[in-house]
Amino acid sequence: MLLYEFLLQKGLEKRRVQEKFFQIVLSVMDEGGIKIVQAPTGTGKTYGYLIPIIERGQKAIISTGTKLLQEQLRRDIEVLRSYSEYLLGSQVNYLVIKGRSNYLCLDRYYAEKHQIPQIDTAMENGWDGDFEFVNVDQEIKEKLCVDEDYCTPNYRNLCRYKNECYYWGRLKKLERSADILVVNHALLTLKDFEDTQERILVIDEAHELDRYITNSLTSGISLYTLRVEIMGKIREFLPSADADLETFFIENFEKLFKHDKDQIAIERVKQYAEDFQKRIVDPLESLYSRIKEEVRYRIASFLEDRLFVSLSLKDYLLRTNLITQEEFISIKSTYDELSQEEQDFLRKLKSYELLTKKIIRLKEFLKAMREENQELGFIVSRSWSKKLGTYNYKLECFPVFPAGFVDFDGYKGVIITSATADPEDLKKTLGIVGEYYELEHTLPYYQVHFLVYKVDPKDEDWKDCLFRAYKYLRTLYDKVLILLTNKDHKAFFEREEGLAFQGEENLSKLVEELRAGKIKALVGLDSLWFGVDVKGEKGILMSKLPFESPEDPITFHRIRFLKSIGENPFEYQKRKALIKFRQGIGRLMRSKEDRGTIVLCDRRIFKFKEFLVAVKELGIQVKTVK
């Protein structure tokens, strides 16, 4: 490959495993199918799929876990497209796409009585509508984003901002001309891409694909939705309307929030269904029925006062189901575009349409509560809301195993890759079956010291052992990652100087401070096990083997479901923990120049041999400390 040979001359390291990756990607382009590739750290997997895609001029969709990783991919594509244009004379058009809720809806924004200075300034400076690049509260984003309930196809065709729309008017047009689309895993469930039969799909960082997809499929009801989004719309029609919407959550769930836990899995939700209907669904549906009659009356009055209306309004009215076929036929229309008066009237109808969708979703959720489907998991949570002046309670449900929600049949071919890609896990959680390739590791793991403190996490002296291990690593290294499995364990290190804790600031900023020596240690949970890249000499402290807590909502419901079908859930838990453990080891070796020490405070590694094998297969010698 010309591009690859040129990069070798420019100093790219020649790697046999990367060349194997090239061949797998080329075979997918030629033959199709699904290929699962375990590509350890050091493979160069990003270039491993980008170089063949760009050199062949193959259209592709590349999906990764987070927006941060999307931006990293953007930088790699920028480098390769520059060389490609120089060598091959071909332009590579690419586009980074996020979910529609990340973009500003102009129609919703200009309907606001007061504009927001940060957004106005951004719009004046060529902003692309992405909320990530303006500093506004989350509640404002939710209120003003492109929303599928608000932006229905019926309304979209009439929207006065449809050509300027950041998402539908600009981004989707750019998508059609892009050779490479860079998306995140949550977007895969939307199936909202065009010409997929011409594209190969690359799923990178696939080790937590099922979690991302499960989170994207989570739906439900919140006190914020009830008070602000539903009651707010109701009061546009019935200003004095009121309903007690908080009591249901307080009386049924407040007692469950103990020991600083603000997220709880609900094993049986059917017992709450009757109270949910009586306190929430029935009062809101009663108000909605009154509004429906009011809206029908307003439509009749509006039409009576006019000899003619636009064809656009007439078609819109039919699709709202607020007029009969006979009434539709009787409406006289002579022009296409909406008048200003019709646009103002349409906005009132839009509020009703949005309210209708919210009420329908409410009734569908009640139905799901009553059915108590074993394949659905329920969760209740709370978080403080400044706007509400109280806790925002949420009651949500999600598919326990989201198999079938991502359809790969429409793509030219599929590559699924990660440093710890596990075909059994992909099959169990997502129903994905493909040809599996396991590439060999290339980094000098023999330079890694692996110490196991022979203590059980249940022992009384485990905490002291953990702290001693931290002090030991700090005597050796100026950079230490502390990988925890329980957020409560952060308290063990709160009095230590030179530490930073995940969540205090943006994670990428904290990682940069660790690299620069501004902090000496970084403490955290999931994101530190999976997504941190710190080169050089360092220490890694693993508090214990990373089994997910049985109280974690997804884990809780998967254990429950597996028991219900007669399977041993511990095999699932162990497989997930092993993936995370291997990812944690990978935090130490990011290049051939890296080296350091890993300390694990958990003697159970000798009981669950899979973890010990994973270490020794890398060529790492394991030593024990009493």
UniProtKB/TrEMBL annotation:
What is the enzyme's main class?
A: isomerase
Q: Does the keyword Coiled coil apply?
A: yes
What is the required cofactor set for this protein? [4Fe-4S] cluster
Q: Give the matching Pfam families.
A: DEAD, Helicase_C_2
Biological process terms from the Gene Ontology for this record are: nucleobase-containing compound metabolic process
Provide the Helicase ATP-binding domain boundaries.
Answer: 4-252, 26-240
Coiled coil segments of this chain = 335-372
The lineage's top-level taxon is: Bacteria
Tell me one GO molecular function of this protein.
Answer: hydrolase activity, acting on acid anhydrides, in phosphorus-containing anhydrides
Task: Quote the EC number.
Answer: 5.6.2.3
Q: Do you know which InterPro entries this protein is assigned to?
A: ATP-dep_Helicase_C, DEAD/DEAH_box_helicase_dom, DinG/Rad3-like, Helic_SF1/SF2_ATP-bd_DinG/Rad3, Helicase_ATP-bd, P-loop_NTPase
Q: Which reaction does it catalyse?
A: ATP + H2O = ADP + phosphate + H(+)
Q: Which UniProt keywords apply?
A: ATP-binding, Coiled coil, Helicase, Hydrolase, Nucleotide-binding
Against PANTHER family, the record matches this protein to:
DNA REPAIR DEAD HELICASE RAD3/XP-D SUBFAMILY MEMBER, REGULATOR OF TELOMERE ELONGATION HELICASE 1
For this chain, the family text in UniProt reads: Belongs to the helicase family. DinG subfamily.
Question: What protein name applies here?
Answer: DNA 5'-3' helicase
